[in-house]
Fold:
Amino acid sequence: MSSLELAFNLVAQWDVVISVGLAAIFGLFVGAIPGLTATMAMAVLVPITFYLDPIPAVGAMVSCSAMAIFAGDIPAMLLRMPGTPASAAYADEGYRMTLRGEAERALGAGLLFSAIGGLFGTVVLMIAAPMLAEVALEFSSYEYFWLALLGLTSAVFIASKDAPKALISLMIGLGVATIGLENPSGQPRFNFGSIELLAGVNFIAALIGLFAVSEVLRNVINGGLVAPKLDQIRIGNPVREWGQLIRRYWRQQLRGSSLGVVIGALPGAGADIASWMAYAVSRRFSRDPKKFGTGHLEGIVESTSANNAALGGAWVPALVFGVPGDSITAIVIGVLYMKGMNPGPTLFLQNPENIYAVFLIFIAANVLMIGFGWTAISIAKRILTVPRNVLMPIILVFCITGAYASNNGMFDVGVMLAFGILGYLMEENGIPIAPCILGLVLGELVESNFITSMLKSDGELLAFLQRPISLGLGIVTILIWCIPLVMMVRSRLQGKALAATTTGDH
Amino acid sequence: MRLPDDVLGMLLLVVAGGYAAMALALPGGAPGDYGPEVFPLLISTLTAAASLSLVFRGLRARRAASMPAVREPRNWLQGAAICAAILAVVFVMPILGFALTICPILFLIFCMLGVRIRVAVLISILATFAIQLIFGTYLLVPLPNGPSFLRWMNF
Structure:
């Protein structure tokens, strides 16, 4: 029996179908609630996947994330309140369409192009991942070190508006990852005599705290418990104009999806960056750039294609190298390790049927998105008016139970609380959380490959650049480090030129 | 609790210093010169650099600093109560069991957040039942049972 047939058999099981379906509903629900992110949906889902077999567990993660990213469009377009950060780029554009009475057109386009973008990302994942896996077999500690560093670098310099704060967030994550025995020297570090901390900080409890508990605290402390009003909006049939939309916007769809996959595959950058960049590109190449910001569909099509395509793209480095493309795949990597599907090139050689099963679930999730998404749009009014003061305490109990279930102990509930407070304080002070999560996931990989490389090269730093792939990765990483410097010089030169012009005018 | 960049930077500088001191106190043990302190020292150096950048940025922007967002004292108290509720769960759940701990705590949080008492009672009971069913019964998580005379509550 071929690997593909085996994969079909793995997917065509009741537990897979049920978990994918339920996770899809959960993803739609969480994604549609403004302020609750796709990452938070994944964090809350993790403890449940702990008790599922590997394929239903990964399938649940895939369908939950795809649905949540799409569902973020619903409140973005109806209320100008993006359900997830990935929908923020075109929230204003979609809302202006809603105000003009074109909500069904905006939502219909969002649903259609999200599904097409997601399928595009899946096709790229299916083609690129096995090819890259063959290359990855040649990787040594030098290449892995640079690759992990590239991911961390992207998270700081590309995916964040404030590089120093993103760097601090990353260092917090890396610092937490140094706790325990898991280090090249095998010495216990920073465990303060705690036996529980010898194994390191429980990633799942930390994740639930950083993303979910901090969100509950933010809603309570910042007074965000009031449900949005949605009285005057009428939503019709969102699929009415699909044929016409595809004919008219195929270029934008293709460009947005391609950009989304590339940004997603870049370690550290995810769907939200892809969405913003696609919106900017769409405006740059549009024949009607002046219509942007007035409720124009073009930018919505390109951005929504990009954010869903980025999901598939982000899985490429996650599956092939174990380096997450974004915070969602950072969580997925944790689940893959828990399930014994350790990411890396050998996964493609030893268990190809598992990988094909993941690909099949990706396709199924994006096709399912049309049906589920349509239903979600139809009942959007009810989803959006769920009172937050009822929702937040229930999410909190899910978090407590989930953190407890991750190790069957109360210690991890305490860890979750500590990280919840940390996450709240970080966001309050403009320190992004995503780099911290990447640091937590990649800390051990960076340290072990750094120390191994230093030992191999006897402290010779040039050895890090002596192999062709490590040289290429090193150059890209160092170039990204130079971005802030280039931007600073450029803005100073522009300032001087402006000052010279002003003086000349006088 | 929003701090100005310079204050935040200085605070983080102290944290980085403390972390570096703890790293230097680690016993060696790795082969060669690369012991368990190397990576933490790199982390503390980069944290200190980023913190210094925040301090300078904050000092430059002092004059143009905007007013920090004002939060109602009541909201802070509610946030503290949520944290206290989680801490209470850590200590009480092993003694009273899942249902007897979660249900009243959920009810109290609902009431604190302004949910009507009748609705709060109903949702607390239903949510506790549902979560215990999902995790305890279907996912076979060994949730704490509590005292033996109350085990009938663990459906």
